[in-house]
Amino acid sequence: MNRGESATPLAKVRGLGASGHGGQHWLEERFSSIALVLLSLWLIFSLLMLPVLDRATLAEWLGSAWAAVPMALLVIAGFKHGLDGLKVVVDDYVHDEGSRVGLHFILTMAAIAGASAALFALAKIAFGAAA
């Protein structure tokens, strides 16, 4: 018997609670939040430690793996966290399944495009004009 066919209200929702579906998504949002806090603190501290904030100094700083790798992680975590948050808003407020799937696709493609552009710009700075 399918869940929708003459099942009791309890049988229809059994297994759909936090332990059944949404727990993993909730944990991913929390982990990306923690990563963003730590990486943002790293960025602020690192920028404060630079002698000046001109283009040449920043380019030299980002040329180091110790700066470029955490910066790439910050970009990835930021876009992932933003995408997850926007998907939750869509899930909460868009009730038509087709529209929801379409918006999820558009949001995912926009996040991939934005993250790709940011990572390309970072690589161009980190590796110089050769990238």
Task: Provide an overview of this structure.
The chain has a single domain (24-130), classed as Fumarate reductase/succinate dehydrogenase, transmembrane subunit (3 helical TM bundles of succinate and fumarate reductases), CATH 1.20.1300. 80% of the residues lie in helices and 0% in strands. The protein has 131 residues and is mostly helical. It has 5 helices and no strands. It has helices at residues 9-13, 18-49, 55-62, 65-93, 97-127. α2 (18-49) runs antiparallel to α4 and α4 runs antiparallel to α5 (97-127).
Task: Provide a compact summary of the structure.
The chain is mostly helical and 131 residues long.
Kindly state the mean pLDDT as a whole number? 88
Helix content: over 70%
CATH classification, class level: Mainly Alpha
What is the fold-level CATH name, i.e. the topology? 3 helical TM bundles of succinate and fumarate reductases
